[in-house]
Amino acid sequence: MNRVDAARARRNRSPRLLGGALVAAALLIGGASAQMPPAPTAAPAPVADTVVLVPPKDAPVPLLWKVSDADNAVYLLGSFHLLRPDDYPLADDVNRAFADSAAVLFELPPDEMSSPQLGLQMAQAAMQRGGATLDAQLTPATREKLQAWIAANATALQPLGLNAERMQLFEPWYVGLLISIIEMNKAGLDPKLGIDEHFMAAAAAAHKATGGFETGASQIALLDGMSRDEQLQFLDEALTDAAGGGNEIAALHAAWRSGDEALLRDKMALDMQREYPALYRRINVERNDAWVPKIEALLAAPGTDNRLVVVGALHLLGSDGVVEKLRAKGYTVERVCSACVVPPVPVTAAQPPLH
After folding, report:
1. What are the respective helix, strand and coil percentages of the chain, to the nearest 5?
2. CA 268/CA 199 separation, integer angstroms
3. CB distance 104 to 310 below 8 Å
4. What range defines the domain where residue 105 resides?
5. Is the N-terminal amide bond of 89 cis, ω within 30° of 0?
6. CB-hemisphere CA count at 13 Å for 233?
7. What pTM value is reported for the model?
8. In this structure, is residue 354 part of a structural domain?
9. What gap in Å lies between CA 17 and CA 115, rounded to an integer?
């Protein structure tokens, strides 16, 4: 058993339900990988932000930026929280960024993410109050779709101790989240293979310092704070996506593998901003605004140690994302992507000097 395998074994002794950010936005937290990132021979190579993507032949090319000030840097890595075995090894740029970093930070501290209490807290927050039932809140059409989904997925629900009767105990947001996770599992995506857990295990094996920007309680509150209309919409859309056979999940996974920033922005950030404007502000914009000063503090820390920050890819995208917010503050921000090529600059005839 190598060091990463040992770290993974320690982290997976207790089964737990999943927590984290909204599946529809950035998917959810997962488990550990089995591969230690290789040691670098050089620092990652920054490239211009306007790039043409070269489809990866083997390794995924996750979104990665390097934010620098005068003496150190912070790498920002966009996570996909559930992955497949063939998503490893990652591109060399990502592994080099890890090796170039003295510490790794995540949305949640590793100890809290690995705690079985996180799942229990989420389930408790999602319990119906005052004798309410799930079906009583649903339209007949949504209720029928839910009943059909439960019947078709009884085998997947059984290990969780869930059936049609017990599902009545939970609020719509929790059931929608559960449906999304099970559908991703059916598509071959495993929470134990997510980027977050991969680097948590790798950091433990390499004896790197770790930390988190938030608490599990704060993330659960974001989900439990959805309005009733948002919850019902989220559940109905989870059922609709499930009926689509996983096409949406496959498209997002492929976009993440190829580092397609524009497609991820359109399919995640812009779609969510349009469909769930209030929730988008709470789980994306407000959290990004809270994280930026923490990243600035990492850059302002004395010394030359670099850090790696691993957060859901949604948080790095578009004008609301951490990347552009840091750029606007004057930091040097570069996309790190050796598999990207900069479009050639058009050659124009020389112009005569003006007199």
Report:
1. 50, 10, 35
2. 23
3. yes
4. 3-341
5. yes
6. 12
7. 0.81
8. no
9. 10
